[in-house]
Amino acid sequence: MKRTLLIAALVSALGGAVAADTPLTQLMAQEISALRAIPGDRLAGYVARPETGVEYSRGWLAGQRVRGADQQTECLAEALYFEARGESVRGQFAVAEVIMNRVDNPEFPDTVCGVIHQGTGKKYQCQFTYTCDGNPEHIANQSIYGQVSKVARLMVEGAPRQLTDGATYYHTRAVKPRWARKFARTASIGVHHFYRKPTRLSSN
To answer: Cα separation of 122 and 31, whole Å?
Structure first.
């Protein structure tokens, strides 16, 4: 729906000029075709995010009313439960940011569920250990799950990402992965360190 409205707005805004200029008409047709090819979740990441402030506290989160969950929200809530249920609300939002940043990054799958289950099926070769460690994924604490579900819904709906400075990786303080020495650390929140992959500059 959002994608259709965005395309319609572009066509309406440039309608007069497009009709008057054949090369521009062709260019607009290509742009519209490209927009239609972008998955909805990724396209949403290119649209300005709401300016609504977020307070990283249990009290604030408890007072938020969110819409019912969809598949992408459920995938994110599950990941937050198994990856960050012991974290503060701030820490849970930070982990969610990494997952949403990956959705917007062309190096990763373009859906929340795709990002979370990347590599699942190969023991200990997945991106999120709980999906490939061979242990059953049982949600025992419904109270915590309800909390992370709200975090997930707010993030999927476009809550500001202001904690990790664009991080696409993280690990707990208990481990020291080799890749972390080559990546730029962007934040440390709770028991997690957050990182962004170095940008490669092309040489001419």
So the answer is: 39
Query: Rounded to a whole number, what is the distance in angstroms from the first to the last CA of the chain?
Result: 42
**How far is residue 109's CA from residue 115's CA, in Å, rounded to a whole number?**
5
CB–CB of 41/72 below 8 Å? yes
∠ CA 177-191-161, rounded to 5°: 95
The Cβ of residue 203 has, within 10 Å, a number of other Cβ atoms equal to: 4
Quote the DSSP letter at residue 180: G
The secondary element (H helix, E strand) that includes residue 185 is strand 184-189
Global pTM value: 0.72
Q: How far apart are CA 38 and CA 41, in angstroms?
A: 8
| Tally of residues, the chain | 204
Comparing 131 with 17, the larger pLDDT belongs to: 131
> Do 89 and 151 contact (CB within 8 A), yes or no?
yes
Per-residue model confidence (pLDDT) at position 39: 54
Half-sphere exposure of residue 198: CA atoms within 13 angstroms, side-chain side: 9
DSSP state of 73: H
- The three-class DSSP label of residue 178 is helix
Q: Give, as one character, the DSSP assignment of residue 47.
A: S
Backbone angles phi, psi at 113, to 5 degrees: -65, -40
